[in-house]
Amino acid sequence: MSELTLVQAVNHALLEAMRSDPDVLVLGEDVGLNGGVFRATDGLIKEFGPDRVIDTPLSETGIVGTAIGMALYGLKPVAEIQFLDFIYPAFDQIVSEAAKFRYRSGGQYPCPLVIRSPYGGGVKGGLYHSQSSEAYFAHTAGLKVVIPSTPADAKGLLLSAIHDPDPVIFLEPKRIYRSVTGEVPDGDVRLPLGAARTVREGSAVSVFAYGAMVPVAEEAAKAVAADGTGVDLIDLRSLVPLDEAAVIRSVEKTGRAVIVHEAPRFCGFGAELAALIAERALYSLKAPIARVTGYDTPFPYALEHLYLPTAERVAHAIRSTVRAG
Amino acid sequence: MSRGPRLTGTARGRGVISPASGGTFPEERLPELYRLMLDVRVMDERCLTLQRQGRIGFYVPLQGQEAAQIGCAAALSPDDWLFPAYRELGVALARGIPTQLLLDQFIGNAGDTLKGRQMPNHYGYRRYKFVTASSPVGTQISHAVGTAMAAQRRGEPIVTVAFFGDGTTSSNDFHAGLNFGGVFRTPTIFFCQNNQWAISLPRAKQTRSETLAEKATAYGFPGVVVDGTDVRAVYRAVAEARARALGGEGPTLIEAQVYRLGPHSTSDDPRRYRTDAELAEWKEKDPVARLKHELLSSGRLTEADDRALWEAARARLAAALDAAEKTPAVDPLTLFDDVFEARTPQLENERAGFEELLKAGVLHP
Questions:
Q1: A59 part of contact set with chain B, CB < 8 Å
Q2: In B, which residues are within 8 Å of A107 by CB distance?
Q3: For residue B211, which of A112, B147, B178, B300 sits 20 to 30 Å off, Cα-Cα?
Q4: pLDDT (average), residues A24-45
């Protein structure tokens, strides 16, 4: 075990995967000598050289398109998109190509690649260094969408993503890249994709979160625990595949659901969770489902502390839900 | 239109391929290439009719581009990876992809390797190193670059070829793909069939550049213009580009100048945007007629031989079509396969619900 930050855990996963499998390589902007703008690929070029740690021209569509070509041939590329906000030039490559290659070829051309990208707010990044656009990708058939919230999960899930036979969008909550440390197993220890994690158990209300909202929800859960309200906090860890059973099981136990994400509310991933709960656990509900999310505005700079869900806002929603029935 | 490979922008010293250094054409293969071109023409004409008759859903014809495609494919190795767009029937047949397999795809039946997933023309077969096409234009260009990088990494001496048209030279991925190819010096041939029209937009309105080939200059590698109706010229240019690629000299952009004699697709009516006079002028340069004339005048073909060749090609196609049309329909439950390697719980749920609707007679296969 090692005590690591989340970004160090990402680095260790890349190091581990590249050591154990010569087909794994990384490519992206500034990933080589500079080690990535967040240092996620720090030191890799020293060990693996510029042929496996590839500094690319500044073109997201070129990065992803090239990675797809490598994946078709049998390599396992890990592409870094410097900020999720900059992924849109590669959108066509991701949704029209990577997501559809296996399907459109009748299974002849799997496209196993990972697109890693720091995402989310809380770093004073304004409109273009803060977005949470996971819903676009979760909405596209053929993509897996994985989001860790702890160092151990970052390493275990990224290792699984790299060895997964299908394209994985791996979103790293940059706000907690360095703010949390945790024990991370050494070696090639993988965590399954599609298995949610119970962060804490409780019987009064279920709270569903992922990424940087997990520690926020955890803080809220601790606050309401003082009032005697037990929160069943579930970290989804993977939006696709989604651990539906864990969601339903928790709601059946508590009868109440609060969903937290920093992405805008309208058509956000919380809407899918709310629909799932309504379809499969409606009769267990004692109160309306609540969503605590970003607002349906572009991501603000000066007001980000008001835009992002806070522990107080989540605790407020938990208390309202418990009072409602 | 009889010029062979030529320098682009020679006055400014651009381009490095000169006609003198071009690959040599194997004359003995000429009759074989003519037969291939004829097969392509027969199938292309038939597919247009099949679409009109409602027997296939859609079709993208390639009349006028046969020499460019056959000449290109003939200069490649079966180990080279091809990244076609949706108009590459000539390349597909030259690659040896069986006619019936293609017709199975056009119909979308149980014999279709792609399991009925794609519109006609978007086929691809791993066995033939002919990658499944998509409809967005240009996306395949950077795939060809990435595959070339992967092959280099594995030490496998192949080239990759991206096929696209004049309109694609305006796309994001043309720029990104050629730029990456140039930066990483990949063994890639960017094979542009400039058929003069991107649906209704003429070549002159696509770019202010004098040629498409000269765009290569900005990416740091040579671009050449060839007469795409001349199978020899295309072969030589591709052979030379392939030799450069394998020699570690990086990519080449080839602009094969052709003309799309037919519509963009079966949904298009070119009379809305171009003149009969222009079409008539280019019909004079029909590559199939041109090669036939040459073979006749050089005594390598007689009219009787030629008639027999066309009849045999039509008979082979009719037999393949008959077999394809007798092949059963695709199994509805395959709808949920190949989204991922294994179905997720969500897909299992949907599949179960779909199966119930089929059993209940709500859905009709």
A1: yes
A2: 115, 337-338
A3: B147
A4: 97
Same domain, B260 and B158: yes
- Report the residue of chain A nearest B175, measured CA to CA: A62
Cβ distance B147 to A70 less than 8 Å, yes or no, reads yes
Catalytic status, residue A129: yes
Give me the CATH number covering residue A130. 3.40.50.970
Nearest to A114 by CA among A59, A41, A170, A54: A170
pLDDT of B187: 98
Chain B residues with CB under 8 Å of A73 CB are 81, 146-147, 150-151, 154
Task: Note the pLDDT tens digit of each residue in B140-189.
Answer: 999 999 999 999 999 999 999 999 999 999 999 999 999 999 999 999 99
Question: End-to-end alpha-carbon separation of chain A, Å?
Answer: 44
Rounded to an integer, the average pLDDT of A232-258 is 98
Task: Work out whether strand B223-227 and strand B201-202 pair parallel, antiparallel, or are unpaired.
Answer: unpaired
Structure tokens at A168: 């994985």
Q: Where do we find the tokens 């699984």?
A: A160
Q: Name the least confident of A73-77, A280-284, B2-6, B335-339.
A: B2-6
Residues A207 and A149 in one domain: no
Same domain, B123 and B198: yes
> Which residue from B134, B339, B345 is facing A97, i.e. has the nearest CB?
B134
Question: Which of chain A's residues have a Cβ under 8 Å away from the Cβ of B172?
Answer: 61, 89, 92
Domain end residue (candidates: A184, A205, A224): A184
DSSP assignment of B4-44: -SB-SSGGGT-----GGGSPPP-GGGHHHHHHHHHHHHHHH
User: Is B305 found in the same domain as B156?
Assistant: yes
Residues B172 and B67 in one domain: yes
Report the pLDDT value the prediction gives residue B5, as an integer from 0 to 100.
Answer: 39
Do A157 and A302 lie in one domain? The reply is: no
Query: What is the mean predicted confidence (pLDDT) over A262-274?
Result: 98
| Enclosing H/E stretch for B147 | helix B139-154
Helix (H, G, I), strand (E, B) or coil at A262: strand
Domain range enclosing B336: 332-365
A189 occurs within a structural domain: no
Q: What is the pLDDT of residue B22?
A: 59
Q: How far apart are CA A7 and CA A42, in angstroms?
A: 10
Residue A102 has pLDDT above 60, yes or no: yes
Judgement on whether residues B341 and B231 belong to the same structural domain of the protein: no
Same domain, A19 and A147: yes
Q: Which residues pair with A3 in a beta bridge?
A: A183
Q: Determine the pLDDT at residue B14.
A: 42
Interface test with A, best of B117, B152, B340 (most A CBs within 10 A): B340
Same domain, B71 and B100: yes
Angle between helices A60-73 and B139-154 (to 10 degrees): 50
Q: Which domain holds residue A246?
A: 197-324
Residue ending a domain, choose from A159, A184, A209: A184
Nearest to B180 among A62, A71, A77 (CB): A62
B4 domain-assigned: no
Flag whether B223 is in a domain: yes
Angle between helices A311-324 and A213-225 (to 10 degrees): 50
- Average of per-residue pLDDT values in chain B: 93
